[in-house]
């Protein structure tokens, strides 16, 4: 057995190497989902599509994840976790590489849906997979480290792939990501421990979980938080152009990413002990950052700081909600996190579609007002959800 596998079996120690490898999976997972948002103008021009159709490159991916997460996670519960993860990585890689070789919008949308289906299974299963490798007191830490890849993907990965897309073309960007995913899959073959699946029971079914009030509260917070953030982020290029930000989209993403990186490090350390405080703070920072955009526009320094604050708010988004829903159940955490993940992706779809329609009628600044309107109820609910966010 490898040293990493042996460390995983000793649940009193934290298997950092394995968790970091799992984090690289969520890193490429979020890049696969959001990559079009950084090169949307180029894709719109090359594919001869509208801004709403461009938004669908992310929106359809998200809705596929939302629709297929619960049934496919339930269907694959008994699969070996390592084998299932390798199959999902293959799906990510192939869909991105083929999309990079084509200039057909319809086929690319189909490939994006395939990628979304893989994501719908990957997000909940990898969190539960990681939790099974550590003791209960380290569940929040495991989720935070694994989901740190999501934040690093946005903070570091998105500026890099956006640069590649702008310098060498969005098709090169897609192909490069696909190849990188294959490298990660190869590492997973040798480093990840083989873990059997679980049997799905009536008490752990998605429908049973939806009868738990605390689970419903987490799902509502997910809907509010994700819709608020992604409604703006998917169209971040439009916001940057509207306020005429010095440094452009790359500068905005780097500042956003720096804030995200700091907050995810805080989440790794404090999620198990201060879940409610972190959730309230996340919503509050979103309101503040959006208010700064409204009041100061593209003022040099102030608007840049707003992107940093927004990143601080965004960083722990996935970690907090997956940790919260996993605390509500003892078994079949895959199913619990799949319900939350499905809500997460459904929220992205709603935010993308709704924001796209608003952009057709108003300036991009309307998205900041939408984010505030969604975040304020999130603050109130999080503050009073003492039992749920214990």
UniProtKB/TrEMBL annotation:
InterPro entries assigned: MFS, MFS_dom, MFS_Efflux_Transporters, MFS_trans_sf
Chief site of localization: membrane
Locations listed in the record: Cell membrane
Gene3D superfamilies: MFS general substrate transporter like domains (1.20.1250.20)
Ranges annotated as spanning the membrane: 16-37, 57-76, 83-103, 109-130, 142-162, 174-192, 212-236, 248-268, 275-296, 302-321, 342-361, 367-385
One of the Pfam families matching this protein, by short name: MFS_1
Record keyword Transmembrane helix present: yes
The name this protein goes by in its record: MFS transporter
Record flagged with keyword Ion transport: no
Topological relation to the membrane, as annotated: Multi-pass membrane protein
Coiled coil: none
Ranges of residues in domain Major facilitator superfamily (MFS) profile: 17-390
Assigned keywords, A-Z: Cell membrane, Membrane, Transmembrane, Transmembrane helix
Domain of life: Bacteria
